[in-house]
Design a protein that fits this description.
about 210 residues; alpha+beta; four-stranded mixed sheet; three-stranded antiparallel sheet; 9 strands; elongated
Length: about 210
């Protein structure tokens, strides 16, 4: 396969999988070997086994980290600090895109950024929606309420006031407390219900401080 043919097939795709190139009368070993050569020469980025992206200047659109995260782990959605920053609930100073998955925990460092995946039980893989990211890209992202609760669930002592204050939460009026309570109850643990009460008090305190301004 010539590189020009690759551009014809994937130039409109933010990321692409090897399987996209194996249709028709092609030899899979030859395609994989050519991809390895292009990755070595810097024409494409290998993000994980079987997943690639065109490198500049060949890419038409820069892949959004949230889309990349979704494609790196199919049974996953962006959550935790990454989703909270996306919704403006914490300052946007992140070192990696954080996702949760029913699969094993993983960490990937790629030319398109760092990606962390934490394991949760299949029962808790809920509370996310598809969001538009611009340039025709979309990704599964936790609701603000579920993103916060996923952090609490995965963090030891995540239900404490100290930990929640360390997150530097802001714009808490954007949280839906009814949805937050419903999601906390799904976890079915005292820890998550305690976290809901602490968060509810933080929301109330922020509202009172705003009224005093």
């Amino acid at each position: 396969m010539e590189f020009e043919r690759l551009l014809e097939l994937v130039s409109d795709e933010p990321v692409f999988e090897t399987s996209l190139l194996l249709a028709g009368n092609v030899k899979p070993p030859g395609v994989r070997l050519q991809l390895a050569r292009w990755a070595k020469s810097g024409k494409v980025y290998q993000l994980r086994r079987g997943l690639y992206a065109l490198a500049p200047p060949y890419q038409k659109v820069k892949p959004h980290p949230f889309l990349v995260a979704n494609r790196m782990q199919r049974a996953s959605y962006v959550s935790g600090s990454s989703a909270l920053a996306f919704f403006g609930l914490i300052p946007d100073t992140l070192y990696a895109t954080f996702s949760v998955t029913t699969r094993r925990p993983e960490y990937h460092s790629t030319p398109l950024g760092n990606f962390a995946f934490q394991h949760i039980k299949p029962l808790y893989l809920r509370g996310y929606l598809v969001h538009e990211l611009g340039c025709g890209q979309h990704a599964f992202i936790a609701t603000p309420e579920k993103a916060l609760l996923d952090l609490v669930y995965l963090q030891p002592a995540g239900d404490t006031l100290t930990y929640l204050q360390e997150l530097r939460l802001q714009n808490l009026e954007r949280l839906d407390l009814i949805a937050l309570q419903q999601q906390a109850e799904i976890f079915g643990s005292p820890k998550m219900l305690r976290a809901f009460e602490v968060i509810r008090k933080l929301v109330k305190t922020e509202a009172q401080e705003y009224e005093m301004l």
